[in-house]
């Protein structure tokens, strides 16, 4: 089981953005590879701290994590939230947080100081995936065709002549305070230090083409309508030899079931029975999300009775167990009666046994609703 992100950073759930950033900086400096050369355990802790900050430092991701835990980011391997942290990604995205703690550079990672070259990241893609209640109950792996931007076969890049491959342009100007030096990303290569060298046929001006790819998406059981999963590295690619692809954001859409209604992890089902079945009792076979079950109807069962099948609902996405399957009994009143049937009910109309006689333990409709939602 993955460790709690708040625990990794040593903060509580009420921590604000400033406290989260401060806690991450402290952990990152403590386990930084420059301070712990060759220490694999420190390297893993360094990666975990970055993974925790990537989620908790983003208000939207933090809200999803608080609601669904690690399951909110399952669905693909690699990348943030998926346990596949890359050192260069960490320094590329969070290097500015270290400030001057390591003299403005990071050994072995290309000198991520004040004038580092930028690793271009491709844009994210978003798709909707429709799931049935049965698929949500069991969890499912979907193979989806995605049209994404990729580097064309045979494309090559070379060092940018404008910035000499540094990714930034330095300007020196004379001011009343003396000579001032400023540095800005190179407008030609957008800070990557590379420009197109060879453009294959059919590629755009950056050496990119659109290609269709089948992506496998693992969807955990218990997901809810609207939840977003991330498949790292399956978004659009970016130009450049050292670029990294964007992510594929998967939005879950729950399709309506013909007979079942969802309420959180609980499932509701309306069971209609006849007067005779209500009076005599018996048994009924019910289709649940995990197969057929046979339930017993006691003699004299009343309309509005709720039968509960414990644990037969949907699994919790936070792995807290399963909800329940709630069967709402409805006694069906026939709309038309033949002569013989009418005569029977006319005869029984005044029979004491057919007169309503609710007992103290017979709950009203509103009591049943209150009990159900409690």
UniProtKB/TrEMBL annotation:
Gene Ontology biological process terms from the UniProt entry: DNA replication; protein refolding; response to heat
J domain ranges (all copies): 4-69
Q: Does the keyword Chaperone apply?
A: yes
Q: What is its main location?
A: cytoplasm
Residues that hold Zn(2+) according to the record: 160, 163, 186, 189
Write the record's keywords in alphabetical order, separated by commas: Chaperone, Cytoplasm, DNA replication, Metal-binding, Repeat, Stress response, Zinc, Zinc-finger
Q: Cellular location of this protein?
A: Cytoplasm
Return the Gene3D superfamilies for the record. DnaJ domain, Heat shock protein DnaJ, cysteine-rich domain, Urease metallochaperone UreE, N-terminal domain
- SUPFAM superfamilies xref list: Chaperone J-domain (SSF46565), DnaJ/Hsp40 cysteine-rich domain (SSF57938), HSP40/DnaJ peptide-binding domain (SSF49493)
Q: How, per the record, is the cofactor bound?
A: Binds 2 Zn(2+) ions per monomer.
Q: Kindly give the InterPro entries that the UniProt entry links to this protein.
A: DnaJ, DnaJ_C, DnaJ_domain, DnaJ_domain_CS, HSP40/DnaJ_pept-bd, HSP_DnaJ_Cys-rich_dom, HSP_DnaJ_Cys-rich_dom_sf, J_dom_sf
Q: Which GO terms describe its cellular component?
A: cytoplasm
Per the record, the domain comment is: The J domain is necessary and sufficient to stimulate DnaK ATPase activity. Zinc center 1 plays an important role in the autonomous, DnaK-independent chaperone activity of DnaJ. Zinc center 2 is essential for interaction with DnaK and for DnaJ activity.
Family under the similarity heading: Belongs to the DnaJ family.
What assembly does the database describe for this protein?
A: Homodimer.
Function, as annotated = Participates actively in the response to hyperosmotic and heat shock by preventing the aggregation of stress-denatured proteins and by disaggregating proteins, also in an autonomous, DnaK-independent fashion. Unfolded proteins bind initially to DnaJ; upon interaction with the DnaJ-bound protein, DnaK hydrolyzes its bound ATP, resulting in the formation of a stable complex. GrpE releases ADP from DnaK; ATP binding to DnaK triggers the release of the substrate protein, thus completing the reaction cycle.
This chain belongs to the protein called Chaperone protein DnaJ
Taxonomic source organism = Avrilella dinanensis
